Amino acid sequence: MNNKNKIFCDHHGCWHEPRDIWLSWANLVTAVRTAAAVVLTMLAIAQHSTTLLFAGLLAYWIGDMADGMVARRLNRETRIGGTFDILCDRLCVALFYMTYATWHHNMLIPIGIYMVQFMVLDNFLTLSFTHWPLKSPNYFYLVDRFIYKWNWSKPAKALNSSALVLVMVLTKSPLATSILAAAIFALKVVSLRRLQQIGLPEVVGCTEAKTI
Ligand SMILES: [Zn+2]
After folding, report:
1. How is the chain split into domains, by residue range?
2. What's the CA-to-centroid distance between 10 and ligand 1, angstroms?
3. Which residue, 135, 154, 183, 212, is most buried by CB atoms nearer than 10 A?
């Protein structure tokens, strides 16, 4: 049991480092893209500018792709980086949707559904990778293929992050947007149910004894 961390495997997604890295280029990109999204959204609110609001969303989307790319290119995917990225995503998404909802009351229902889904259900699901010795949710297929495929594979990520905005803006239909938001919500419930069935790895013993 004590040599649990000393098991070496060939999985690229498994965490093999003795310590995590706090300062990395990828984390710097995450910090900059989040700061840019916050500033642009605040300016959007101050000036009631839709253009600035979407510029903030774009800063988040582009930056979110860039930080992952930097981490992979430099072979510096860290668990702290993964967690930091997930938290910054929540902030950026909340800023965009709540501002949009304030200006477009016909979208209050789908945005309400989406907020609960993304801030609570998906947040818990995404952070659950930390219960395993994984680098990030991008390697969750080592735990479960179904959950990975529907939540963090490339098409699933696109569906989860950009589909709702596109449907909301292009169709301008609260019904279509609500149906999509409800479908994503249902997907997260099913994924969480599966996670519950798999069970999170047991955490037992004395915390104090382990940290000495
Ligand atoms: Zn492994």
Report:
1. 19-103, 105-201
2. 6
3. 135
